[in-house]
Amino acid sequence: MSAADSPLLSVVVPMYNEEEVIPLFIERLRPVLDTLGDSYEVLTVDDGSVDATPQLLLGLRRVWPQVRVIRLRRNSGHQAALTAGLHSARGAYVVSIDADLQDPPEKILEMLTLARARNLDIVYGVRTDRSTDTFFKRITAGLYYTVMRRCAGRAVSPNAGDFRLLSRATVDVLKTLPEHQPVYRLLVPWMGFPSGEVTYAREQRAAGRTKYPLSKMIRLALDSVTNFSASPLRLATWLGMLTFAGCLALACFSVARHLLGFTVPGWTSLFLVVLFTGGVQLVCLGLLGEYVGRIHSALQRRPAYFIAYDTADPAGASTPTV
Ligand code: UDP
Ligand code: MG
């Protein structure tokens, strides 16, 4: 196998509508990888972008042959784009990094040196501060990691995102997991491989806007909880029992009042009880629905993504020219 077939390092970069940051990102990434002194590939995963991202990436290959482009047919989400990258990467080590320069490319070399020196399978990029995050992001992230550390274990770092290095052995194990909607920041620590970390200050997004609107954040949070815990279902049972006990007490109270001759109309309390029990039932139904929906989509066994083209594909006929 030639070095190009299995390079030392694959850098996986999911990108969704990142036309503004691509030039800036490449400008920072290339000098870093050129000092590596070994073979590498830059595996860009275009997650169904609708801006100039695909043209920019294909054009980039002419001046930087180590760039490989995998384009997904539709926007499948950050984690699915990462899955596509991990499944296609050929390196002995695989680093995943965001395209917006919030994760500094210079740290890749530090990760690699650490992994090789201490024979580690995983090196996490750990943020030393979140001062560049908005107040809302800090609060929601704090809540998310508190809950997820309870569900998925203490190995989940509250300050590690998707900037990490994985060894070939780890990637190969990840590829065998039948997880339908993986959340890598939880799944990777859960595997328990020897790991280390490098710290970095999280920078501002270099250009463009976040590609993680609230709806995608909620989706990630729901995937995270349902992947690692059935506690919400247990919570629903407790909530149901509590409401039942409350209603029973109220029923006894009303019967006693009736028997004692206090026949007040009491429609307000009745109304409140009906509203409250209805609300609790709907919440519990919703929780059930989240799990049933995931069982349903897991049973459908639809792939998480479809590749439109991969420039490393030997057939390669479908790769457009720019
Ligand atoms: N991304 C993606 N598909 C999506 C959303 C985001 O591939 O549906 C990529 C995006 O291009 C970036 C990374 O995932 O490289 C992280 O997204 P972003 O920086 O917008 O998230 P934030 O840092 O705001 O949480
Ligand atoms: Mg970002």
Q: Segments where pLDDT lies below 50 for 5+ residues?
A: none
Helix content bin = 40-55%
**For the largest beta sheet, what order do the strands appear in spatially?**
7-5-6-4-1-2-3-8
The number of helical elements comes to 10
**Radius of gyration over alpha carbons?**
25 Å
Structural class: alpha/beta
Tell me the major beta sheet: 8 strands, mixed
> Which small compounds were modeled alongside the protein?
uridine-5'-diphosphate, magnesium ion
Give, in order, the helices and strands: EHEHEHEHEHEHHEHHHE
General form: elongated
User: Between the first and last Cα atoms, what is the distance in angstroms?
Assistant: 30 Å
**Beta-strand percentage?**
5-15%
Overall pLDDT: 91
Count the strands? Answer: 8
For this entry, give a set of tags.
322 residues, alpha/beta, 8 strands, 50% helix, elongated, binds uridine-5'-diphosphate, binds magnesium ion
Characterization of this structure:
This protein is α/β, with parallel strands linked by helices and 322 residues long. It is built from ten helices and eight strands. It has an eight-stranded mixed β-sheet with strand order 7-5-6-4-1-2-3-8, sandwiched between helices. Strand 2, helix 2 and strand 3 form a beta-alpha-beta unit. Pfam families: Glycos_transf_2 (PF00535). GO terms for molecular function: glycosyltransferase activity.
